[in-house]
Specification:
343 residues; mainly alpha; Lipoxygenase-1, domain 5; two-stranded antiparallel ribbon; two-stranded antiparallel sheet; iron; Lipoxygenase domain-containing protein; metal ion binding
Length: 343
Amino acid sequence: MATDKFFWFRDEEFARQTLAGLNPHSIRLVTSKLDPSIYGPVESAISDEMINQEIGAIELTRPPMDGKPQWKQVYVPSWDSTACWLWRFVKTHVLAHDAGYHQLVSHWLRTHCVTEPYIIATNRQLSVMQPIYRLLHPHFRYTMEINALARESLINADGIIENSFSPGKYSLELCAVAYDLEWRFDHQALPEDLINRGMAEEDPNAPHGLRLTINDYPFANDGLLIWDALKQWVSAYVTHYYPNSSVVESDKELQEWWEEIRTVGHGDKKDEPWWLTLRTQQDLIDIITTIIWVASGHHAAVNFGQYAYAGYFPNKPTIARTKMPSEDPSDQEWKLFVENPEA
């Protein structure tokens, strides 16, 4: 059977990997209709009929920098040779930006970085015989060691990430800003995460109590199976050791553990109203299930496909070291692109 060696180059595979590849967590539902006024220099190339249809489009924006004004352009698929090559290049730029966000936010921040306060508080506040310590301990294995190695050679100044990923020297700033603007504990639970991103709606008649916006969305399809299994296991475990809410409230170690996570480990968000309280069995079940999900299912989704998808660099480039050929080109740059786009 013949094999398409350039399948990774096709729009279908680009779309499939966007949904089911390394970074399925950044997908959000956009409900507003496209405004024709945004199309700028390519407005004349997009008919009203195309705007009213559901078409694939990519907009690149460069903010004002180095004395240059903002630049932005919308690209659409085309059979015209020049536009076809621009479309291929713009997909590369999308992948490069996505790779930076994936590695620094979806992976490092959301699974490695924010898990540290859970681990530190677990070791400081819970004895090794405490039931919740014993439940959480296997899920924290090697995390601190891996994070230390990452700070030593991956996310360190002038390290691998800064040199070979699109955010460059702003990598950790991007991570910090994302934590400040986006991270909240209650949205780390998979159902709440999907709802928050517009990828699901509550529906008591649907599987897992959620109606998915995209039916074939592996992060949700597979993830919800894992989430439900985790929650069932955690529920059975917690209700065995904490048969009623008074036992939860009176467990001094447990209360100090949750207090440290909120007010010390995530101290800059300690006054946020969305923190879960820890008074009932259900509170404890929700907290523990969320922590375990982040360290297991969520991490698996954004980590274990890295070699399969990014081992071949053209399929998942982490950086684009040249601008788009249509971004303020000189006559010489445009001539080179038109005559030899492959170069």
